[in-house]
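**Folding the chain**
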Amino acid sequence: MPHHTQLLLVIVGPTGSGKSSLGLLLAERFGGEIVNCDSVQVYRGLDIGSAKVPVPERRGVTHHLIDIAGPEEDVTAGAYSRLARQALFEIQERHRLPVVVGGTGLYLRALLEGLSPAPRRNEALRIRLQAIVQRRPDGLHRILRRQDPEAASRIHPNDHQKLIRAIELTLLSGQPATVTQKAPRDGLQGFRILKIGLSPDRSALRQHINARSARMFEDGLIEETKALLASGISPRSKALQSLGYRQALNALAGTATFADAVAECQMKTRQYAKRQMTWFRREPDVHWLDGFGTEEHIESAAIALTESFLRGEQPV
């Protein structure tokens, strides 16, 4: 039987699909430690809106890369990859099973495949590009269409963050962002990887997302956001622009009622879940399970897949 130190388990799927629950179950059963792969759970103080598993409910399972940064920081995919790889190798040295759990596709890609050797961020350039957005919201997409039509065809005109990065890559590297991004990457070495994907029924997931979004507000999301602002965190920080917190900010600013904030959070989260599934469906070698990670038959199927994987067999 292959040694545990050669193995890596990855659990992906849309928000609300039960990844955390399934990750805990498998980590408990197979002597594992969880490595977070959610770009909001890395921030301290963002607990309710990021759906972190509370410490008392982690059942003694060690979790990595949760609460590692202040909300004013920007944990890039590159930074995440470096920290996550370090955690994986430390878990490996302890002869434990690393279990990567989360729905941030870019983080996972950076971890497993590495990132292209691209220029670092240029804050002065980004400020100028942000100014273009303020003057003309579609301006960045028009610029990118001239510079790199292929990249422009893949990025939504309203996704200003990705547009800024693509234009930044193009200007700093002197070649289209698409060319830079296709350069060889430094993929993760030393692990056999089993990827398990959760794919609940669309209608059931929609209902679950609606209920969970409403529950976050009922559980104090607005109060949590207010406390973050009171601690000096800027409402423009990247962390507070994430789902739930952005809507809570609107409620606090008086630009949305409580009911409107909940409804917008539900809608935006459903849209995000759809984008996640589109992303992960392109991820190679995922073993998809049609249900929530909290369902008994899904748990049993995931256990069987993992047992097969640990025996050195190729799961089917």
